[in-house]
Design the sequence.
């Protein structure tokens, strides 16, 4: 296998290894993918302010969040179906995150169940969607408590699913799907055969253990709840007394509502460009949301992060913590847990270079002055 020096390398390796329909699901956005491209381009366009002749021999990337000290302000954000990208993929990713001392958030629509991932000895944060069956939601909250999850992430930007043209184009069963699988023999052996059972771990009580992906998509469309409101956040707050993070915030008024409804943090996110196409990138939304919460809670961010330089850019825009999405999923698909471990090392190394050459020796020192406003 070709060695990967960057997230971009891992994307190319993932494309070469995954069946076409799976890569398109991972890589694609909604509609014309305008927001997907903006997330990356707007971050890349932020010029860093290079400074010289400062003592940068001792860099500290560590940061505290929710009472824990993490090795760096980076975590693995929730990625749906990651268990299909490598054999028991979320378990491998959780081990890599734990070894690097960074958090991982497990998606509700993961391949491996929360119980399986937690049983590996690496308990993740848990990401939750509101669905019409509140009994099922309450049960998932209780499972998160029972497994010892330290934080709950409520994703709120999926009241209705976005339309993803790539998924439609790549869909198909029978001979077409079989041809895609047979064209990727390494994946077929590693995941399709040795990685069984292939299921939607947390949704097994509803969709069954052997449900095909078409059933998963049908379940999403039938069960995600467009009636969800701030009252439901209040309902959840009463059932969960740990850190509650609201993910999918782009508007300052919504950020203010998060604080008023008792949550502990927000994730500035547009779902990786997979929901409402044409909305603002997270990089452009971030500063005004930081201003809206005015230090009342931590601000996390995701979207378009493809390097350690991008992490520093997000921090300079005001984020307290950054979640990776596709970056770690590409690495998992390309090289399993070893790929995730390596991409975290790459991110750390790139952060160190960016911090040293902007004369920032700690994460707390990365602020608006780290950006060269005249160079943008």
Sequence:
């Amino acid at each position: 296998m070709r060695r990967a020096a960057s997230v971009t390398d891992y994307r190319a390796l993932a494309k070469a290894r995954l069946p076409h329909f799976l890569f398109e699901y991972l890589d694609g956005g909604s509609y014309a993918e305008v927001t997907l491209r903006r997330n990356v381009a707007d971050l890349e366009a932020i010029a860093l302010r290079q400074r010289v002749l400062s003592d940068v021999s001792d860099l500290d990337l560590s940061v505290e969040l929710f009472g824990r000290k993490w090795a760096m302000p980076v975590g693995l954000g929730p990625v749906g179906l990651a268990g299909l990208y490598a054999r028991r993929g979320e378990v491998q990713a959780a081990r890599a995150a734990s070894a690097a001392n960074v958090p991982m958030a497990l998606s509700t629509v993961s391949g491996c169940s929360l119980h399986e991932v937690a049983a590996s000895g690496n308990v993740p944060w848990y990401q939750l969607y509101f669905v019409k069956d509140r009994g099922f939601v309450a049960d998932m909250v209780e499972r998160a408590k029972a497994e010892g999850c330290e934080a709950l992430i409520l994703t709120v930007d999926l009241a209705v699913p976005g339309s993803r043209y790539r998924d439609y184009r790549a869909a198909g069963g029978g001979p077409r799907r079989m041809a895609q699988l047979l064209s990727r023999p390494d994946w077929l052996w590693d995941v399709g055969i040795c990685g069984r059972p292939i299921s939607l771990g947390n949704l097994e009580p509803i969709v069954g253990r052997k449900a095909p992906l078409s059933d998963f998509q049908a379940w999403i469309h039938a069960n995600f709840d467009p009636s969800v409101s701030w009252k439901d956040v209040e309902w959840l707050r009463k059932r969960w007394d740990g850190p509650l993070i609201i993910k999918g915030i782009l508007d300052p008024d919504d950020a203010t509502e998060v604080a008023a409804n008792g949550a502990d943090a927000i994730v500035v996110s547009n779902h990786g460009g997979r929901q409402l196409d044409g909305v603002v990138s997270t990089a452009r939304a971030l500063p005004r949301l930081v201003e809206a919460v005015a230090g009342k809670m931590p601000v996390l961010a995701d979207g378009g992060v493809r390097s350690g330089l991008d992490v520093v850019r997000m921090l300079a825009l005001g984020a307290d913590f950054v979640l990776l999405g596709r970056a770690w999923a590409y690495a998992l698909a390309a090289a399993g847990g070893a790929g995730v471990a390596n991409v975290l090392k790459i991110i750390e190394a790139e952060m160190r270079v960016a911090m040293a050459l902007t004369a920032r020796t700690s994460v707390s020192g990365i602020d608006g002055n780290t950006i060269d406003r005249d160079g943008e």
